[in-house]
Amino acid sequence: MTVRSFAALVALAASASVAQAEYTLHILHVNDLHSRIEPINRFDSTCNAEDDAAGECFGGVARLATKVAELRDALIADGQNVILLDAGDQFQGSLMYTTYKGEVEAEFMQAIGFDVMAVGNHEFDDGPEGLAGFLDSVSFPVISGNIDVSGSNVLAGRVGRHAVVEVGGARIGIVSALAVDTVETSSPGEQVVFTDEATSLAEDVATLEAGGIDKIIALTHVGLRTDLELAAEVQGLDAIVGGHSHTLMSNTVEDALPYPQMVGAVPVVQAFAYSKYLGHLVLEFDDMGNVTSASGDTILLDASVTPDAEIAARVAELAGPIEEVKTRLVAQAADDIDGSRDACRIMECTMGNLVADAMLERVRGQGVSIAIQNGGGLRASIAAGDVTMGDVLSVLPFQNTLATFEATGATVLAALENGVSQFDEGAGRFPQVAGMRYAFDPAADTGSRVISAEVDEGGAWVPLDPAKTYGVVTNNYMRGGGDGYAMFDTDGMNAYDFGPDLADVLADYMAGNAPYQPYTDGRIRMK
Question: Taking CA atoms, which of 117, 153, 200, 508 is between 20 and 30 Å from 177?
Answer without folding.
Answer: 153
